[in-house]
Structure formats: structure tokens, C-alpha cells
Amino acid sequence: MKFAIQSRNDQLSNRLMEEAKGYLTDFGLVFDEDEPEIVLSIGGDGTLLHAFHKYQHRLQDTAFVGIHTGHLGFYADWKPEEMEKLVISIARTEYEVIEYPLLEVTINYRNLEKSATYLALNESTIKSSEVTLVVDVELNGEHFERFRGDGLCMSTPSGSTAYNKALGGAIIHPSLPAMQLAEMASINNRVFRTVGAPLVLPNHHKCVLTPVKGPDFMLTIDHLQLLHKDVKSVEYVVAQERVRFARFRPFPFWKRVHDSFIDSDI
Ligand code: NAP
Predict the structure, then answer these.
(1) 88-146 confidence digits (pLDDT tens)
(2) In CA terms, which of 35, 214, 228, 259 is 20 to 30 Å from 72?
């Protein structure tokens, strides 16, 4: 089996990376950064986001697993002291693959025939390059609302514990193929009105944002941020592609939520 390792690049993560690489090679696995079947991410959830984007062109053939060298992560749920156990499991056991939904974001430009498409593991956010974002929100071809405010965040179920949670969005179990639209400080008064609650959209539904004011936007895709100029519309759907995680032991999602946000000592 071919493997690659993504490190957060701090001292502990780099040391674990070298050790894991040595053990896996001794077990007969082949280090291959171009076409790995399993990617070991060592660092945090942010490190796994980097690994995901590095290998997003071969999601069908790659499974991810994460060790956290800081606090417990949603994508990085193995402890540093469990590294040897994990490495033996990778080398010696058949692993279960768990698939999580992703978000597909398409940006159409005004004066160009071309469009750009991205996959997000956590979320995509949109803000205006000016102060207030003003966009029309369309759901499945029907006008839903005119949004005025700081921005909007469309997240995946596994990303619902990240930025979305800070915006008051719901935590969604990643077995549900869905996407969630959360508001960032919408303007609501007698003149301007938005629904004022996060919307959870199922598979096959489409959300389209059309600029009302200013065609230039700051868009994030997970940790990546880009200024997009002359935007005609931004489209969101639950992606057909899914991310695959290698599971060697049960660690239920709600337990990870509990241990991350409530109490990890019980
Ligand atoms: P980052 O430092 O890599 O991530 C920011 C924090 O979000 C880190 O503590 C990270 O955990 C955590 N995180 C990432 N994915 C998560 C998930 N699925 N569930 C729970 N926590 C998660 O920052 P970055 O590189 O700029 O952006 C990456 C992510 O940061 C974005 O995808 C976004 O979700 C998040 N973010 C959150 C806020 C907010 O909560 N107000 C604002 C901006 C961005 P680790 O320490 O384990 O890496």
C-alpha cells in the first residue's frame, strides 16, 4: 500500500511524521506523495484541510486519517501516544472507510464564459470587498430573500462544528448529505428582512447567490481565501464527490462533539 504524510510542521508533528514514515516503510508500505492510498495527517483539523486540498483530485483512491498534536480534532482523533498502534493498524488490518459529504461551489463570472469550481471539506464563506454584502438568495430556482449583512457561510455537515458553529448554526451529523447556510450579522429592520435562521438544504437542492451591489467578493474555501472579481453568481450544491476516512476503531461523531465542546475527562 502507498502512503503519504501531511505534517503541521511543528517540532512534535515533524518528529511523529519521521517515526511513522520509518515504521510504515519497515512494514513494507511505500511512501508515495503523488498517489497515496492512505494519507496520515499529523497536526490538527487545519492540517487535514491542507491534506484534503492536496489530494482532492484523487478522493476516490485516497483515505485520510489524522493524529492531533494539539487538542482533539474532528478529523484528527488519534493521540500522539497512539501513533505506533495506528501505524500497526494501517499496516496490518483491513480498515473501514467512512465517507462524509462535501460542498461544491461554482463561481460564474460576468464577462467571461468560464466558471471556477471548488470542493470544500468544511465550508465556503462569502463577504463583500466593500463593507456590506448584498446578494439575492435563490433556492431551487425561486427567489428566497435579499441578504444584507457581513456575509454568508455555506458549510458541510463535518464543517458544521467549525465556523458554522460560531455563527449559531446547527451541528449536523456527517451521515446526512446536506449543506447549511448561516448568516453573518444580517441587517434586519422595517426595510430589510432575512429569514434570520440557518437553513439546512438536502442533496440535489441548489442555492444561488446573485450580487445586487458590487461584483467583487472575498470567498473562502476552507482555509483558502481569494478575491473574485466580476462575479455573476455563486452556486452551492452538495457535491457528488465524498471524502473518505480510514476508521480503525469506533469513535462516534456525537462523542467527538461531547469531548471537544463539553468535557473530555468523563
Ligand atoms: P485554522 O487555525 O486551521 O482553524 C481554525 C480553528 O478551527 C482551529 O482550531 C481548527 O482546529 C478548527 N477547525 C477546523 N476544522 C474544524 C472542524 N471541522 N470542526 C471543528 N473545528 C475545526 O484556521 P484557517 O486555516 O484560517 O481556517 C480553517 C478553518 O478555520 C475554516 O475552515 C473555518 O471553519 C475555521 N474558522 C473558524 C472561525 C470561527 O470559528 N469563528 C473563523 C474563521 C475560520 P485545529 O486546531 O485542530 O486545526
Answers:
(1) 999 998 899 999 999 999 999 998 788 999 999 999 999 998 889 999 999 999 999 99
(2) 35
42 with 82, same domain: the answer is yes
pLDDT of residue 265: 62
Task: Please report the sign of the dihedral spanned by the C-alpha atoms of residue 33, residue 39, residue 40, residue 41.
Answer: positive
Query: What pLDDT, on the 0 to 100 scale, is given for residue 215?
Result: 87
Does any domain span residue 266?
no
Structural domains of the chain, count? 2
In angstroms, the CA 242 to CA 9 distance is 27
Please report, for the domain that includes residue 181, its CATH number.
2.60.200.30
- If asked whether residues 13 and 85 sit together in one domain, one would say yes
Contact 229, 48 (CB under 8 A): no
Q: Can you give the residue range of the structural domain that contains 234?
A: 102-240
- C-alpha–C-alpha distance, residues 62 and 255, integer Å: 25
Quote the longest CA-to-CA distance of the chain.
68
Average pLDDT over residues 73-88: 95
As for ligand 1, residues whose beta carbon falls within 6 Å of it are 44-46, 49, 70, 73-74, 76, 122-123, 158-159, 161-163, 166, 222-223
Active site residues: 45
Q: Average pLDDT for residues 48-61, to the nearest whole number?
A: 98
The pLDDT of residue 266 is 52
Same domain (yes/no): 60, 131? no
- Percentage above 90 pLDDT, the chain: 94
Residue 72 lies in a domain: yes
In a shared domain, residues 114 and 230: yes
Closest approach atom of ligand 1 to CA 122: 32
Atom of ligand 1 nearest to the CA of 76: 47
Q: Which of 192, 189, 197 is nearest to 133 (CA)?
A: 192
Q: Give the domain CATH number at 66.
A: 3.40.50.10330
Cα 99 to ligand 1 centre (Å): 20
